[in-house]
Amino acid sequence: MAAGSVRRDDAQQGAAFTTPSGNITCWLERAKTDDGDPEAGCSIDARSWSAPPSDCQLAYGGLIAVTGDEAARFLCIGDIPSCFVPTLDQPNACHGPSGLWWHRTGDPTRGTGQSAVAVLSYGTSVRIGPVECTSASSGVSCENHDTGRGFTLSRERYTLTPAT
Q1: Residue 126: exposed, middle, or buried by beta-carbon count in 10 A (0-12, 13-18, 19+)?
Q2: What are the start-end ranges of the E strands in the chain?
Q3: ∠32-158-137 over CA atoms, to 5°?
Q4: By CB count within 10 A, which of 46, 47, 62, 101 is most buried?
C-alpha cells in the first residue's frame, strides 16, 4: 500500500496494527461497547512523558482510547491479556469470530509466529467505520470522525483532542 493512503474496510468489525518501530500498537473497533460505540486505542512501550495524575490502582498511563462521543482518555486496566493484540496465528483469540484482525497477504509484519503483528507503514491510515488511525514517524493519531475527538501519541508527547 502506498504511503499516504487510507485503508478503509467497513466490512471488518475491527483492526489491530503496530508501527514500524514497534513502539506503538493500536486497535480499532466498529462497535466496542454494548451501545455499539466505535473505539480506537493505542498502547505505547517507551515514552519520555508521564500520564496525568489518577487514582487508578491498576496499570495506568500506557494506554489511550477514544470511545463513542466520549473524550479521549487514559485507560485504567488490570493485566493485559496475551491476546490483547491479535497475532497472525490466532487472529481472533480474544474476540471470537468478530473479525477483529486486519492483515492481508503481502502486508508487512513485525515478529514471528504467535508474536507477529501487522505493521501499518508510516504515512498510512486504517479506518473502520468512523474511527481512523494514522501511522507517522512522529507517532500515531487516532480520531472518531463522527465526533472530532481523538488523540496523538508519540515517544515525546501525547495530545487529547479536543483538550480535556
Answers
A1: buried
A2: 6-8, 14-18, 24-29, 39-44, 59-67, 73-77, 109-110, 117-118, 124-128, 131-136, 139-144, 149-153, 158-161
A3: 95
A4: 101
**pLDDT for 87:** 43
Number of neighbouring beta carbons within 10 Å of residue 55: 6
18 CB-contact burial (10 Å; exposed 0-12 / middle 13-18 / buried 19+): buried
The pLDDT score that the predictor gives to residue 47 is: 94
Segments in the chain below pLDDT 50? 1-3, 79-102
Strand 124-128 and strand 6-8: the pairing is: parallel
Enter the DSSP assignment of 53. Answer: P
CB 118 within 8 A of CB 20: no
Asked if 27 and 142 touch (Cβ cutoff 8 Å), the reply is no
* Cell numbers linked to 140: 500515531
pLDDT, tens digit, 9 for 90 and up, residues 92-119: 433 333 333 445 556 677 765 555 677 8
DSSP secondary-structure letter at 135? E
